[in-house]
Design a protein that fits this description.
With 273 residues, the chain is of the alpha/beta class. It has helices at residues 44-51, 83-90, 108-118, 124-137, 153-165, 183-198, 210-216, 234-239, 244-272; strands at residues 6-15, 18-28, 33-37, 59-64, 67-68, 71-74, 77-80, 93-96, 171-175, 203-206, 219-224, 227-232. Helix 3 runs parallel beside helix 5 (153-165), helix 4 crosses helix 5 and helix 5 (153-165) runs parallel beside helix 6.
Length: 273
């Protein structure tokens, strides 16, 4: 009854002989928000893509809501499911990418409606009503008839979140959802994600936004070199990291933030002259 929503056991993944995941163990409970932190190349995005079966694993197991993802197991051996069955499992998971990937020829409402109509067979009337509700939830009710080119990056990413929610997923995955945005647009996307967390949405978030991880995450997981180095409550991992690799990474992130703040202040001062 109390099984985790995501249960990853000894997950391995390599690309052309380069081992990217080296035995990841991770559980995520229903309603929990877990932030994955770590340097580029640490395996965070790859792990997320393995959960959603956009990548196949070479070893271990991933279970989502008690169901083995991507495979069936017989006599201790794994057999890959066919594409149709994998697509059926993937419907239960919403994913928001760095790039918004909206259909440019569709309005915001049409983008949100597309998957429920085409994949779930929901009527256009019902899908349209749900799309309007979701666009209102992400603060874009007045942009429903706008095309992606008419929206800012932050607005496009909020449409992408609404689109993922339209499938009523059990789990939401976010792969650095603010990294492609101008800094002044980051906050509007993080506010939507914070609201999702407050309403009990189960989320795994790959992010470099330390403030979001500290304020919203139930647990922070630091990855480096394809392994989980340490994990725990954000106050412990972010404010008092135990491992040298975590300490080094967080020091570098803080330094980058300070440099950026100084550059902003200098620009503001120059503009005021």
């Amino acid at each position: 009854m109390n099984q985790p929503l995501v249960h990853a056991v000894n997950v391995h993944k390599d690309f052309h002989g380069n081992e990217v995941l080296k035995g990841i163990d991770l559980d995520v409970n229903v309603g929990e928000v877990v932030c994955l932190l770590g340097p580029s190349g640490s395996g965070k995005t790859t792990f997320l893509r393995c959960i959603n079966q956009l990548e196949t694993i070479q070893g271990g197991r991933i279970y989502v809501d008690g169901v083995l993802a991507g495979y069936t197991e017989k006599n201790g051996k794994l057999y890959r499911l066919n594409d149709k069955l994998i697509a059926g499992q993937r419907r239960e998971i919403g994913m928001v990418f760095q790039r918004f990937n909206l259909f440019p020829h569709m309005t915001a409402r049409e983008n949100v409606m597309e998957a429920p109509v085409k994949v779930k067979g929901v009527s256009k009337a019902e899908a349209g009503k749900r799309a309007d509700e979701l666009l209102a939830r992400v603060g874009l009710e007045d942009r429903a008839d706008h095309y992606p080119a008419q929206l800012s990056g932050g607005q496009q990413q909020r449409v992408a979140i609404a689109r993922a929610l339209a499938m009523q997923p059990k789990l939401m995955l976010f792969d650095e959802p603010t990294s492609a945005l101008d800094p002044e647009l980051v906050g509007e996307v993080l506010m939507v994600m914070k609201e999702l967390a407050e309403t009990g949405t189960t989320m795994i978030v790959v992010t470099h936004e330390m403030g979001f991880a500290r304020d919203v995450a139930d647990r922070v997981v630091f990855m480096d070199g394809g392994v989980v180095v340490e994990q725990g409550p954000p106050q412990e991992v972010i404010n008092n990291p135990k491992h040298e690799r975590t300490q080094s990474f967080l020091s570098r992130i803080r330094a980058e933030h300070e440099e950026y703040a100084e550059a902003l202040a200098a620009r503001a001062e120059a503009e005021a002259l």
